């Protein structure tokens, strides 16, 4: 167990071993809340699917082409 001190601004340094373990890098968002008289820091897990949504900027063209192909196949 590590002991850390808060700065005048209330900042703390998360030990390097924990930063590596939880992949916390500069800019990593953390949730901060209290629970049962404890302060909890929790890395925000990124949803890769949600972040990638809209990345291709096809404006639905791929989906429309797929639907068109499926309809064409169904007629045959």
Please describe what this structure looks like.
The chain has 76 residues and is an alpha+beta fold. It has one domain (16-75). Helices cover 34% and strands 16% of the residues. It has helices at 16-21, 48-52, 61-75; strands spanning 30-35, 38-43. The mean pLDDT is 88.
Coarse structural class? alpha+beta
- Cα-based radius of gyration, to the nearest Å: 23 Å
How many structural domains does the protein architecture include? 1
Low-confidence stretches: none
**Number of contiguous helices:** 3
The N- and C-terminal alpha carbons lie at a distance of 68 Å
| Major beta sheet, strand line-up | 1-2
What share of residues are in beta strands?
15-25%
Could you state the order of secondary-structure elements as H and E? Answer: HEEHH
Shape annotation: rod-shaped
How much helix is in the residues?
25-40%
Count of β-strands: 2
Largest sheet: 2 strands, antiparallel
Q: What's the mean pLDDT score?
A: 88
Layout of strands and helices, then pairs:
Layout: H1 16-21, E1 30-35, E2 38-43, H2 48-52, H3 61-75
Antiparallel strand pairs: 1-2
Which features characterize this protein?
76 residues, alpha+beta, two-stranded antiparallel ribbon, 34% helix, rod-shaped
Summarize the structure.
By secondary structure, this protein is of the alpha+beta class. The protein is 34% helix and 16% strand.
